[in-house]
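Reproducibility note. Readers wishing to regenerate the assembly model reported in the main text can use the exact inputs given here. Chain order matters: entities are listed in the order in which they were concatenated for prediction.
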Amino acid sequence: MSKLGQAKRIIFLKTADGQLFEVDEPVAMEFEIVKSFFDENEDAADDTVVPLPNVSAEPLAGIIEFCKAHVEFRANGAAGKDEVKKFNAEYIKEKSNEQLKELILAANYLNIKEMLDFLTETIANRLKNKSVEYVRAFFGIENDFTPQEEEAVRKEYEWAFEGVDED
Amino acid sequence: MSKLRKIEMAKLPLEIKSNIFSRLPVKIIGKCRCVSKDWLGILTDPYFLQLHLERAQKDRQFLFLDQSADHDDKEDNRRQVARFFTTNMEGVMQFRARGLVVGYMYMIPSGHGLVCLVNRGIFYAFNPSMKKIARLPKAQPSTCGGVDAGFGYIQSTKEYKLVHLYNIKNEEALEYTIKCEIMNLSDGGVVSSNSWKQLENECPVMKFYWMVWEGCNPTENQLIVSLDLETETFGFIPHPHVTSYVEGNDMFLVELQGQLCLVDTFAYPPVTNVWILKDPVKKIWVKEYTIDLTKLEGFDDELTQIFILGYLNGELTINSQQERLDFYNVGSRFFRKGPNLNLRRDTGICIYTETFFSLKD
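Running the prediction on these inputs yields the following structure tokens for the assembly.
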């Protein structure tokens, strides 16, 4: 049925850990980095494999799942509706903090605006009712203050350390 | 996840980290500033502070105050324990604090980060996100019962203005002149060196209310007195054409999304009308919402008073003097119950937004 050149195009992506993904073009084009690869290499053959040296297979599979669903939502005119919210909530529910970190790093590298916004908000929601130790562990922040410096800065931010902390 | 590979969040661009942090409470950010030099730099950067301010203004926090003193009893000068606590929109407790005070403590919200507290004629500026309270210089004495003051934030100058109305007794008995004094609060300013500025104009009414009426029944003379915080000039706005009034359930004014609203409750059938001043220049009021109170769980037409505290994401935040807050969806016209916060009938409630606005004694 499809005419020449209108066949569904598949984009090949290769992850850092050597896995090859076959992704429908509209989904792959959600990734700004893939889009610009083809914009810059107009003559690239259809079976060109796009290397993604900063992304491993697990987060990429998760990202493809998210983008595929959102491309379909847009095509069906469902963007912004309840079913999108429901999908997003389900999608994030089973993800661990470590998986979220992998996803946001990958989404940042691939430059997927919609997903980045979603992950930023999700991570903030997960952190906002937690203790500073939790936030610190999440970001892996190392203390580089000398004890004197820490004492001085803590004095200045005394107000932050009073009252109840509930995790 | 099976791999034990360390995930390097350091690779995440500053912009995204700032974005995540801009959604976190001031208190956590304060603590994170004490964690590393890097973070101290990022979290005090003007770019970050601006981002946080913009985000915080789209969110809401609640400040609650439980006290045993009675605001109607001016002679009640007993020592009492005042208990403050704050929660976010989900009802998650942010902090609790208690203090001994003598007499009743009033709360005046600014619709922004700071809340003004008033106890026995003494004004305090309070930043609930930083738990900082600062006593303000002495205001003019006033013989009126409650507290006639307003507190507001001016976006253009990033300052708060506290407006205090007070009375001066005239020669003739029972006649008073109403005067007005104003104090500006700026970020990081030393509060004790602030001073009240006396406004030369007298408040142009003889009644001591921001909302002015004669008796209980609405009359043609009903007016709302306004004070433009930027130009510091008084004005009048007529009431909308409200026709009913419930004993013990005063009409009140509230700001919703930057618009002045008048909330009016009817007894039969029990509904609350929300009038919005759509056009402050032409002084046009529109009855925007009519809330059917029978749909509110636990509603009792003898006991329940409805107070509208604010508006966020299509919902009015309602204090119906129950143990929880309620949220009224203006689209679906249904109520959503908030989590049980063990509120008392007389718990004072006020909305604020998170802010790093600093108050120095």
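We highlight two features of this model. The helical segments of chain B are 14-21, 26-32, 37-44, 46-57. Residues 1 and 239 of chain B are 63 Å apart (CA to CA).
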